[in-house]
């Protein structure tokens, strides 16, 4: 038997060190060729490290959260034959460390089903109860959590049929339909006294997100501008296009229309499609519109990039947004797909709230935030009518963007969305 040493690989682009984010194996595990051993985090993306050999793990070269130099020993595997271990390569064994894993959530750019119009008066246990611990947080997407809230259902009582026990919309409906005779146990559990605590190590993607958010708020002079938009007409257009072409071309969400509105508005406001190098004191305005779409993934917020949005149709943009969201959600987005944006679009979908203050995605100078659509009575030509209204909550770098220009830019987007034919008039 011999020992095969795997060193931290050179991932490219001049990176000298990476952060060890998560181990997928422990000492004593048997591994096979191409099995993922660990995740490492670069400045821009999570990278899988696969095994090049079959064998048994005998030593780990680091712990999650540790920053490791390229070329340092990552893991040692016992293999048949001589292996590749040199005397100078022998590592000091490091015990694997258990790290808490955050509950998974879905990317919020997916389309959300309609929720019930009215909430039950009280949360009544109606389906078969699941025996979860009091502090156990069930896996579910933000849309499912809101659906459960609207239905008055405690998610921890619902049996999930999705991957890893994830609670789906269908599980909520099944829970309501099946009924449950004994509601006293969950009610008692809901009011049980709790004294538990949980410590979560800030490593990997969460650490990168924290660093980038802190850096953005410290370096840029943020200011936000909020405007409400009547999206009744564009929602009618979207419904019409989905009815006519949805089966053959795919369903459209509002996001491709927003991307199109950005592209058209930026023709008159090129200063928004820019990057600011504050160290060199240089603003670079770009002709290409590479739209970052802020997406919630299992490991945190990621911003995959729809490249050359100016050259894409509605359905092309929709397909690319969906592809990138799935790649980010599954941890498969490449570094190129997560870098190079010139302006960012962020949306919380059904959880969008009324107003938000998005943080800039440096070195960009503008980010457009989308809030939820609500029906409200509005006065139109002297008549009170029900319209679908949505706020845009957008932030800008005041070092580069003047307040008047930011307001005019958002007003241009408003005009395009309220008169959707203008999105396609050249």
Describe the structure.
This is Dihydrolipoamide acetyltransferase component of pyruvate dehydrogenase complex. Belongs to the 2-oxoacid dehydrogenase family. It is an enzyme of class 2 (transferase). The protein has 426 residues and is of the alpha+beta class. It has helices at residues 142-151, 169-178, 184-190, 204-219, 232-249, 255-266, 314-329, 403-418; strands at 2-7, 17-23, 30-31, 36-41, 46-50, 55-60, 67-69, 73-79, 222-230, 274-277, 282-285, 291-297, 300-302, 305-306, 343-347, 366-380, 383-397. A hairpin with a 2-residue loop joins β16 (366-380) and β17. α6 (255-266) packs across α7.
Distance between the termini: 71 Å
Q: Indicate the radius of gyration in whole angstroms.
A: 25 Å
Report the biggest beta sheet as strand number plus sense, adding barrel if it closes. Answer: 7 strands, mixed
- Beta fraction of the residues? 15-25%
CATH T-level fold name of the domain at 221-423: Chloramphenicol Acetyltransferase
Low-confidence stretches: 91-127
Give the overall silhouette: globular
CATH class of the domain at 221-423: Alpha Beta
CATH arch. level architecture of the domain at 221-423: 2-Layer Sandwich
- In CATH terms, the superfamily of the domain at 221-423 is Chloramphenicol acetyltransferase-like domain
Structural class: alpha+beta
**Order of helix and strand elements from N to C terminus:** EEEEEEEEHHHHEHHEEEEEHEEEH
Overall pLDDT confidence: 83
- Count, helices: 8
Number of strands: 17
Secondary structure: helix percent: 10-25%
Protein name: Dihydrolipoamide acetyltransferase component of pyruvate dehydrogenase complex
EC number: 2.3.1.-
Enzyme class: transferase
Family: Belongs to the 2-oxoacid dehydrogenase family.
